[in-house]
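Q: How would the structure tokens look for this protein?
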Amino acid sequence: MGPHKDAFRANDNGEPSGTAGRPIHGQLLSKDLTNVLVIVVRYFGGIKLGVSGLQNAYKIAAKEALDVAQIIEKTIDEVYEVTFEYLQMNAIMQLMKDPCVTILEQKSDLNCTIRFSIRQREADRIVTALKKVGTVQYC
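A: Here is the predicted structure in token form.
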């Protein structure tokens, strides 16, 4: 499943339609996971489970695997550079204190420059505020 949850693939691989891929995909959505691959292998044990039994089996298998998995959280960041006069330093630094902002490089002179990274989902909010104070460029 891609980072925006718009690109995914679910496959029933020979099971009745919607009995394997959909329940697994549902577990990924319920845990709000992206950039992940889940594969469930089921061996036939001689008992036919029926549609609801198959759905339940795949759902539970995916849930139990995800419950014990180590989930690594990563953010999608963008890098920007803001240029401003030294007199605007206080206003810029207030915005740089945001927990989503990480300062990568800073040059203070008559004209100052700060290169920073920010979570993609928060970029518009911070960049709009920075444009009111200085010149912002996407790197």
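The longest strand covers residues 77-85.

The first helix runs from residue 21 to 30.

Upvote if useful.
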